[in-house]
Amino acid sequence: MLYHSTNNPDHRVDLKEAILRSLPPDNGLYMPDTLPTLGEEFWKGWRDLSFREIGHAVAGAFFGEDVPEDALREIVDGTLEFDAPVVSLTPDDHILELFHGPTLAFKDFGARFMARLMAWLTRDEDRQLTVLVATSGDTGGAVASAFHNVPGTRVFILYPKGKVSGLQEKQLTTLGGNIAALEIDGTFDDCQRLVKSAFLDRELSERLNLTSANSINLSRLVPQSFYYIHSARQIDRTPAFVIPSGNFGNLTAGLLARQLGLPVERFVAATNINDVVPRYLESGDYQPLPSEATISNAMDVGAPSNFARMQALFGSSWEEMCDTIDGLAFSDEETRAAIREVKETLGYTIDPHGAVGWLAAKAWRTAHPDTPTITLETAHPSKFLDVMEEELGKGSVEIPERLAVLADREKVATSMSADEAEFKDWLNGQ
Ligand SMILES: N[C@@H](CCOP(=O)(O)O)C(=O)O
After folding, report:
1. Which pathway does this chain act in (predicted)?
2. Tens digit of pLDDT per residue, the chain (430 long)?
């Protein structure tokens, strides 16, 4: 399979180049030349398949031409060592819990798959791989966990100072070994800009053998499409998916699942006040803005990188995107009220990101009462302990042991400005 840049269909590379180089030199994003579908045979029996069997089929459809079946099965099985259960709050209101992995966020699916695929792609090489990743909260921890102690790799995580939760920060800054954190005096968008600037510097990128673990890397998205199929098979009617969104990788993965043949009534992009995409869907005008800090911090993204892929999937047609995706945005006050309402009326503890999704699902179902929604609960509530305890009271959220043990560990991070030259100087010295 060949992959092309969203900025230039004539710039085409093979799988290894697309995954390891991550970003085309023209600052586009890689897309497969042919978007695969799963055949009739798969869709005849899909409701009876296990999560792993779905993973084998989807990974095979995307990567089967380039990676042997047994290697791909091993990559998928190693990724899916935990489930993504659906919890039904009412017959129409379903929550897809994506936080049962090692770092308690949906990013574990993508990061674990990517680490294993990269290990396979570089199995005959002895050059050190340098993984760069920008995070607004959850990606960094998942990538750190997936690559920790992987021989021949080192990971540099850029995160915005003071803009991730306390426990998220511990996940980024306490592992040590081959994982290093850079605390950037700026926003997530600054972190993402710095990472991209390193990739666009071909000399630096070649010399350090840079690769990206953000969702600009296609290998992050494919495994995320597994759980759309896995959850939809558990609901008796065709659902609408509601996706709390920041960089829009998760929604793009849903679009890939639909492209594979999954019946989906609608996608609903749910955001906090960083509502660039809902405003685009409303007006047709795409205006990235500097991100603003909110209590659903992982979604504090002002220039969502996967928007380019979304546009490519709809042939750059605003009308066609609007036929498939709705957008809704909510404030922190509304999110806080939703956390309380979900607990009081449905007995479920939902994190701030899931709460934004739940609000969008509720509003959307009011206009479409016959369609059930599946809302992606992207992270465990304990990752946002301060907010949860402000709304639900002290001790209201149980902290899983794997997160609780981090609380007393010492944070180790290098402080840095959001200046490209300073960042590149630092990288050059590594
Ligand atoms: N929401 C992310 C931001 C990075 O986005 P990604 O899609 O590139 O992983 C986070 O939690 O860090």
Report:
1. Amino-acid biosynthesis; L-threonine biosynthesis; L-threonine from L-aspartate: step 5/5
2. 999 999 999 999 999 999 999 999 999 999 999 999 999 999 999 999 999 999 999 999 999 999 999 999 999 999 999 999 999 999 999 999 999 999 999 999 999 999 999 999 999 999 999 999 999 999 999 999 999 999 999 999 999 999 999 999 999 999 999 999 999 999 999 999 999 999 999 999 999 999 999 999 999 999 999 999 999 999 999 999 999 999 999 999 999 999 999 999 999 999 999 999 999 999 999 999 999 999 999 999 999 999 999 999 999 999 999 999 999 999 999 999 999 999 999 999 999 999 999 999 999 999 999 999 999 999 999 999 999 999 999 999 999 999 999 999 999 999 999 999 999 999 999 9
Q: For the residues of 297-352, what is the DSSP string, one character each? A: GGG--SS-TTHHHHHHHTTT-HHHHHHHEEEEE--HHHHHHHHHHHHHHH-----H
CB distance 139 to ligand 1 below 6 Å: yes
Four-way CATH pick for 81-106+218-398: 3.40.50.300, 3.40.30.10, 3.10.20.600, 3.40.50.1100: 3.40.50.1100
Rounded to the nearest whole angstrom, what is the distance from the C-alpha of residue 137 to the centroid of ligand 1? 7
Strands 30-32 and 3-5, sheet pairing: antiparallel
Among protein residues, the one with the nearest Cα to ligand 1's atom 7 is 215
- Residue 249 near ligand 1, beta carbon < 6 Å: yes
In short, whether 153's Cβ falls inside 6 Å of ligand 1 is no
Q: Is the pTM of this model over 0.90?
A: yes
CB 373 within 8 A of CB 93: yes
Q: Indicate if ligand 1 lies below 6 Å from the C-beta of 168.
A: no
Residue count of the chain, please give it.
Answer: 430
Give yes or no for residue 245 CB within 6 A of ligand 1.
no
Q: At what angle do helices 249-260 and 51-63 cross, to 10 degrees?
A: 90
**Centre of ligand 1 from the C-alpha of residue 190, in Å:** 13
CA 293 – ligand 1 centroid, Å: 14
Angular region, 118: left φ>0, alpha ψ -120 to 50, beta rest: alpha
* CA 223 to each of CA 13, 43, 146, 202: distance values in angstroms, whole numbers, following the listed order: 21, 18, 14, 28
Choose one of 138, 190, 217, 271 to mutate for the ligand 1 pocket test, by most ligand atoms within 8 angstroms of C-beta: 138
Q: β-pairing, 325-329 with 373-377? A: unpaired
